Each structure stands twice: as structure tokens, then as C-alpha cells.
């Protein structure tokens, strides 16, 4: 399991109209293979035949900011906007596959309409280190409510300070996973850009 392999997906696909050998998809996660196959089928239904080379070049340009998005440093940061139980399950599967050998610290801030208890339970299978914060929106769930549901972790009210705390816990060689909402990911990315 190499770090590079954790950041992209390789697959091949055969459709009624073409065979696509060894596609290098720069979107991590096994779920992206299914997404690509659906996109290929839809593309073939909606357009004239596409040259395999052109398709491969197009796929190589794919980006999905905020979804299993790595920022390497000390510690490494993984941004993921997962915000419901099914997307959290995908994130946890990815973490178990690729970073289970490293210290993982979750920085989480979710919206009050989400099932916080179920989300937290999924993360507890990956790591005991969870920092609960509140993104700057009136829709955010209070982090102390999440901590109470989790019966683990710690509360750092502001995402910017929670981001610093998560990095301190992860230390060199660890991974901070910023997740729970688009708001949380955006605030943490802004902190990183500013150098906070």
C-alpha cells in the first residue's frame, strides 16, 4: 500500500461499445470505480463514439475538491465533506484500507439535522481521537452534543482552533481527517491557506 496508490484508483471497464484498459482515475476510493462506470455508460448513450485515448486524457483531469483530498505535510491532512452515514461509511472504509497503520485524528463539525450518533459510532471503529468543533453557521450541531453522544473525544469550539488541536494530536507521521460538512472542510482549508 503506497501513499501514491491511496490517492488514485486504477480500473478497467468494458461496455457494449468499447473496452477501457487500465484507467488511472485521480479520484481515490473504490466507490469511484462504480461512479466512473456509470459515467462511461451515460456518455456512450449520449454521444458518438469517443476515442479511448481522448477519454483517458479527460478522466486523468478529474478533480473533486473536498472529497478524499490530501494535503501533505506534518501531519498529513485529508479533507472529506462526508456528512451523512453512507458517505461516512465510505470514508471509514478508505481510512481502514489506507491509513490504519497511522495515528488518525478526526476533526468533525456537522449540521444539526444529521444523525450525529450514527456518524460518531462509525468513526470510533477507526480511531479514538476525535475533536468536535462548530463551523460558523447557525445550522451547526453544538460540539458538546456530539461529544456526549460519542462518550469520547474532546470539544474545541472553533474549527480553526480544533484544526490546530487535531494537528497537535496527530503529530508528525499522523493524519488529520477534516470532515462532517462542507462548512467544516472550508474553514479548515482556509486555516491551512493562512498558515494557522
Structural write-up:
The chain is of the alpha/beta class and 196 residues long. The protein has 7 helices and 8 strands. The strands form 2 sheets. Strands 3-4-8-5-6-7 form a 6-stranded mixed β-sheet, with helices on both faces. The protein has a two-stranded antiparallel sheet with strand order 1-2. The longest helix is centred in the first third of the chain and has 16 residues.
Show unreliable segments.
none
- Helices and strands, in N-to-C order? EEHHEEHEHEHEHEH
Average predicted confidence as pLDDT? 88
Beta fraction: 15-25%
Would you tell me the structural class of the helices and strands? alpha/beta
Largest sheet properties: 6 strands, mixed
Approximate helicity band: 40-55%
In brief:
With 196 residues, this protein is α/β, with parallel strands linked by helices.
Describe the structure using short key phrases.
single chain, 196 residues, alpha/beta, two-stranded antiparallel sheet
How is the secondary structure organized here?
Blueprint: E1 9-14, E2 19-25, H1 31-46, H2 52-60, E3 69-71, E4 76-79, H3 85-98, E5 104-108, H4 116-124, E6 129-134, H5 143-150, E7 154-158, H6 159-170, E8 175-179, H7 182-194
Parallel strand pairs: 4-8, 5-6, 5-8, 6-7
Antiparallel strand pairs: 1-2, 3-4
Helix pairs in contact: 3-4
Amino acid at each position: 500500500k503506497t501513499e501514491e496508490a491511496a490517492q488514485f484508483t486504477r480500473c478497467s471497464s468494458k461496455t457494449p461499445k468499447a473496452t477501457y484498459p487500465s484507467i488511472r482515475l485521480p479520484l481515490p476510493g473504490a466507490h469511484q470505480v462504480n461512479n466512473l462506470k456509470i459515467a462511461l455508460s451515460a456518455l456512450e448513450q449520449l454521444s458518438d463514439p469517443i476515442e479511448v485515448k481522448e477519454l483517458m486524457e479527460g478522466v486523468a483531469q478529474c478533480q473533486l475538491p473536498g472529497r478524499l483530498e490530501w494535503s501533505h505535510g506534518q501531519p498529513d491532512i485529508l479533507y472529506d465533506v462526508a456528512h451523512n452515514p453512507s458517505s461516512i461509511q465510505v470514508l471509514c472504509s478508505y481510512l481502514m484500507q489506507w491509513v490504519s497503520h497511522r495515528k488518525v485524528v478526526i476533526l468533525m463539525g456537522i449540521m444539526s439535522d444529521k444523525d450525529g450518533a450514527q456518524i460518531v459510532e462509525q468513526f470510533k471503529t477507526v480511531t479514538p481521537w476525535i475533536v468536535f468543533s462548530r463551523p460558523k453557521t447557525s445550522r451547526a450541531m453544538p460540539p458538546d452534543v456530539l461529544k456526549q453522544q460519542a462518550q469520547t473525544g474532546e470539544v474545541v469550539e472553533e474549527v480553526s482552533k480544533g484544526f490546530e488541536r487535531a494537528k497537535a494530536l496527530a503529530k508528525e507521521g499522523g493524519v488529520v481527517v477534516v470532515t462532517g460538512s462542507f462548512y467544516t472542510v472550508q474553514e479548515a482549508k482556509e486555516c491551512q491557506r493562512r498558515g494557522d
